[in-house]
Amino acid sequence: MDSQCVSILPRVCGVLLVSGSSLPDDTSLEKLLDWFTTVAQTGPSLLEACPCLVDFVSKVAFNYASGSSILSFTLKLTGLIGASEDGFKVLKECSVLKLVFNPQHWQEAGLWEDPCLRIGWIQGLKMILQHSEALSFFAQADLIEPLLQLQTDPSLFVASAANQTLAQVLLLCQSLSSVGHNGSKNRDLEHNSVSMETTQNYSGIITKVSEYLNKSVVLKEISQLPGSQQILRLLAMLLVRVGPPLRDTLLLAVMNSLEELVTTSCSQLTVPLLDVILAANSGLRDDCVPKQRLIRLLWAMLNMKKPDDVMQAAAAVLRSHQSDPALSAHSARVLLLPLDIVTGVSLLDENSTEGELRILITEQLKRKSCISMICVCLSNIPQITLMASDRLPCPQRLIVTAVLLLLRLCCVDSSSSSPGCVEVVRFITGNSKVQKCALEALLVLSKSPGVKMVLVEVFKVLTEYLNSPSSDPSVLQKSYQVVIKWVGVCPDLSCITDQLREGFIQAVRKRACDTRWEARDSTVEFLGHLVEVPSCWTFTEQETEPLDVLLGGRRFTVPLLKEALQDPESYVRASSISALAQTLAPSWQDGTALTQEQEDIVAQLQEVLFQDSEGFARRAAVKYFTAWFSACSSPSSCWLLMQSMPTVLSQGVADLDWEVKLHTLELAELLLDRAFPDPSPSHSYAVMSDQDHRLPIAGQQSDLLSSLKNLVDWGVVSALLCGVVDCDRPVALKACQLLLKLRGIVCPVMDNAADTRVFCQLAGASVLQQVRKIQEIGKDTHVVSEACSEADEEGICASVDPECVGVCEVLRLLDLDEKLSILTQSSDHIYNSPLSLLQDILTAAAASSPPGQDSRQELVMDCY
């Protein structure tokens, strides 16, 4: 630990004792505890590093005047100290443990009602329960009783923490008991057995927990409902975390209560009860008695008289992937019943055993609450499709047909009528929640066998949704996703007729001009994604792109996207730029000559970089050029691309948006890698030495010099020098890394070559001033003056130009290694250091409340 921290800590403890409310902010104590935790985990024992803490804990325990936040902090700190066996012994000798963790002590002081104190007590217990001695203390002090009482505390924070601590207690009992039976395996028990008294303590804890759970699970009156819900959540967590035989003990203790609870048919307890049953069921052998009783419980829940509860139970069974095939098949039938009833599509055979449930669900569907039931049905279709084909209630193609009919019924502009439950139509028509669930199900059903047979119907329904003015933007977005998915899995699009194509084109054009920007944004995104769908076959048996089949190709999409560049919404402009990059990428890869339209797009994108007021569009513009350069097989042959680079780099690196600048540097990195495809050394930041290099032949020197001049001409070096002095740390870090990479490639060779100076222009005087600042002002100004005079002789810059620098000299003389080490450090290493925290607490105490004012009356926010 830092010596300054050690010297300041006693003063800080004194400040906390006198005035706990005089803190820099409400997180200071948590930060202090985090620091103590780090010290305990990484260094010597906490008391060796901070011996003053025992005295602090002892004084706070007797000082009722301390604020609740200080008391809570002290309880947690006591637990942290006692987490080590040495610290536990010291606290025990000082008689601090019994006092601090005695709830009656705090009740008598009138402090127990404060949830902040209770949370400190609970978390302190959880921290200390790391070894057998702490568990023995816990048992002998009978702390299990107050801990159990806190399991249903009115404060959710307290109850949740109590649940976690009880799990910690049981896990420690389990581990120590197993050691007692099987021999010692850890440092907690150096002997090969646990004393009889200790074993009895553990057994007593488990017995009390089992009795408490058995008694608390049963719902005696409606006022106990929140408590029963909390106990069921606790029981589910315990059954997941503990292992046999403790899990079996807990399960047997509550089994009768669970069976009684199922018979109450309380809807509010259905989900937590299912969580308990499924948690208990996982991991049990099929032939064991508890497993069979749990399966009977699940069957009982699937035969309840409340349709909503039955649907929830069926969904839970499917999600848990139960090994009982009959149970899974029945659950699938239950979940498909609403879809069968609403659409009239016969998904279930007439001999179905769900006759009574069908009547109940039909009545439920005539009420507005049918929406949630239908959504539960649709959202579980993915689980149904995962079942073995011989377990499915019907072929998946029938489910697709039913979902399509449901989508038609939900569409406001559709003329379809339901052959099933007519009353439900008025509730689901235009309901975006049902529409999105149905479309999500349709996404999954695209993998069904024989999907080509229904592709035309799918396409017609989706076109209806895109044409409907009442379709919500989120529904439109989901519809586009379904189109992409179905087209991607159907390589044969010969069924798409000219009439279907024309209708789809009109729908897309209509949505591209929608008054809602979300709809326009989804449309341009769709146009970009459609290009990436694999090739397909048409009715002429020719391989072609889905974009050509559905929309007639790029002659339709490019003008539409180009027009979207002028959209008033920045999100749409950004999406259109990204979509253009996706659309034009194939032509870049093929090396096709640019059209006038594409040249106009480049001019527009440069205008976006200069004039667009929103960062989204400017980021997309830079990424467009990055994608172009990456896709182009021979960038040097594309004059417009390379001609645009200096403008894009200079403008991008000077942008006010840090992400624009970072994307610009990523483009610069691509150019750097293309200029030096096989850099040496292989590691960008390897230390260079003279013997590591051999004198290259003259041809290699010439190539390297030519590549470096190209980087200067493209504006890469100037962009990196601008970026390395940027105020945004990620930008400066990226630029520094790239300059180090460039230095490692260029400088070793240039040191051995004659007359190979390469000069570059900085973007402005301000950048030059910052470079000089890095060079320790005046120390290396000869770099600039020499560069200007020599460049003058070559006609590169005017003799008075102060912004021309020698590349190799700057790379050598800038302290890039030191800058890299600084940039890789977070600002927290200064502002959030332990020393800074301790100093802040002392400073806040010096500026505490005026004389006469009770500091305890100040508002202290604590989220415990």
From TrEMBL:
Localization: Cytoplasm
Keyword Cytoplasm set for record: yes
A biological process from GO: cell population proliferation
Family the UniProt entry places it in: Belongs to the BRAT1 family.
Main location: cytoplasm
UniProt entry keywords in alphabetical sequence: Cytoplasm
Protein's organism: Poecilia reticulata (Guppy)
PANTHER family, A to Z: BRCA1-ASSOCIATED ATM ACTIVATOR 1
An annotated GO cellular component: nucleus
Keyword check for Cytoplasm: yes
Record's protein name: BRCA1 associated ATM activator 1
